Amino acid sequence: MTELLTAAQMRAIEQAAIESGEVTGLELMERAGRGVVEAVFEEWPELAETSHRAVVLCGPGNNGGDGFVVARLLKEWGWDVEVFLYGDPARLPSDARVNYERWAALGEVLPLSAAPSAMTETDLLVDALFGTGLGRGLSDEFQDVWDSHLDCIADGVAIVAVDIASGVCADSGKEIGIYAFVAELEVSFHRLKQGHVLGDRMGRAIVKDIGINTWQHHGSQTCEPVTLVCIEESSLFKTPFDHKYDHGHALILSGGAGKTGAARLAARASLRIGAGLVTLGVPGAAQMEVAGQITALMLRRVEDGDGLASVLEDERLNAVCLGPGLGAERARELVPMAVRAEHTPYIVLDADALTAFAEEPEALFGMLHEGCVLTPHGGEFARLFPDIAEKLKAVPTKGPAYSKVDATREAAARAGCVVLFKGPDTVIADPDGRCIINSAQYERAAPWLATAGSGDVLAGFITGLLARGVAPMQAAETAAWLHVECARSFGPGLIAEDLPEELPKVFRDLGL
Ligand SMILES: NC(=O)C1=CN([C@@H]2O[C@H](COP(=O)(O)OP(=O)(O)OC[C@H]3O[C@@H](n4cnc5c(N)ncnc54)[C@H](O)[C@@H]3O)[C@@H](O)[C@H]2O)[C@@H](O)CC1
Ligand SMILES: Nc1ncnc2c1ncn2[C@@H]1O[C@H](COP(=O)(O)OP(=O)(O)O)[C@@H](O)[C@H]1O
Ligand SMILES: [K+]
């Protein structure tokens, strides 16, 4: 399980490690600096071959302290290293101060204002200005250095950020202020921070171990760390003795004639992910259209709320999906019937089933129960949770900033059910505070998912897993993970129809 930490959680963990007496802050700083140098040589092996030039920008806190360690280690490798400090050396925290002194025995420390001219002729730029202690945006004092770092990017200079790019909030991934740096490589310590996988992050973030092992759950953490999705393959198996009804029966409600494609996509996705049976609930006027397009899927006429209620008397129908192509009016009529159905434990609400309640989200939340899953994209999220979306959208002026994790947790608590907030950084939260991120970034980038109908397929995947008896939180995270795997497996040219068809290959690769 890959944990992602906030700055406060990381501080608490470090503090507990230091207070336990088994490691000192100075040792951690040395390991952090060593980790950065190792990561640089792994990322750019050509830099390890001979000595090169480095510019190290150090800030006024421990991030700067790591920078002094990096400078010293590179110097020991025979590099030509220039170090620039923002702030007064006398005010550095003690460990950073020790490393400042150690560096000062080897070379000069110039003020940050002198850095731009050196940055025109370097092979490596080390950004050790601010890490988890970023408290506000970088002031205009940083403008020249920031401009020069853009020139470095244009010139192809290797840029490594110590912990996280300076100016980026470690909790939210948001840029605080206007002078946020960009780095090709970010080297985090002990664990990635939430900010490494939230938002539109550039570059690549990796973790270097700094030897904190036993203390990770100590400290004054207010809630459990967020984790990256970790799927349990066992929830996807079918045993040789299973009957189709052992894997549930999903009902996907369709919109009217000419609007049935989205529900058909979701239904096919439910079937492919292993629901035993999948039925499309279709209004009479669309029956012919749908009947001509399906084979293994089944079809039931669902004209209105009463029609749905009578279909749902069948206790074998255990998961219902409403939203894709449903239409707002039909959604307003069918959603209350579905969520109140006595025998239907699981409901997925997507697309129109969310937008239909934009005027009265509280009425929707009042009906929901713990078997429900909401799957909004950014627009739908803002319609249902306008105040939360406002907070998330606000341009932060200080850190730590309100994050997509905070927003999704707040939404789940308000809705009283699992909320999956889509994006390349899909955040899934349970009302109990558990929170998981499915990151489609760095080596898991799946930009081909930005195609019409891919969200319908995701809703279908979740519904299928719920039908199979997977609990809502796990169904949402497993579906989100498989969705990205299907996109990555298919690759460029992907359209939504391809996602369910790629699932058998992904399953085979998982060894199912
Ligand atoms: N504490 C530890 O034991 C370890 C810390 N590590 C490093 O320490 C970093 C965290 O250190 P700190 O907590 O000292 O935080 P930082 O070094 O990120 O920055 C904090 C300092 O910057 C100032 N500051 C914040 N925002 C500013 C702004 N916009 N303009 C000007 N000044 C600003 C603060 O007043 C404070 O002096 C981590 O990111 C990591 O790089 C690593 O060495 C691993 C061990
Ligand atoms: N650039 C991207 N990288 C990774 N995933 C993406 C990207 N763009 C969209 N997605 C994913 O694709 C899906 C799109 O869903 P949605 O916006 O509801 O589309 P639609 O309504 O067309 O079905 C979501 O699961 C989202 O997380
Ligand atoms: K940094």
From TrEMBL:
Cofactor note (record): Binds 1 potassium ion per subunit.
Listed cofactors: K(+); Mg(2+)
Annotated residues for binding of AMP: 422-426, 455
YjeF N-terminal domain span: 10-218
Keyword Metal-binding appears in the UniProt entry: yes
Listed transmembrane segments: none
Gene Ontology terms: biological process: metabolite repair; nicotinamide nucleotide metabolic process
Protein name: Bifunctional NAD(P)H-hydrate repair enzyme
Native species: Roseovarius faecimaris
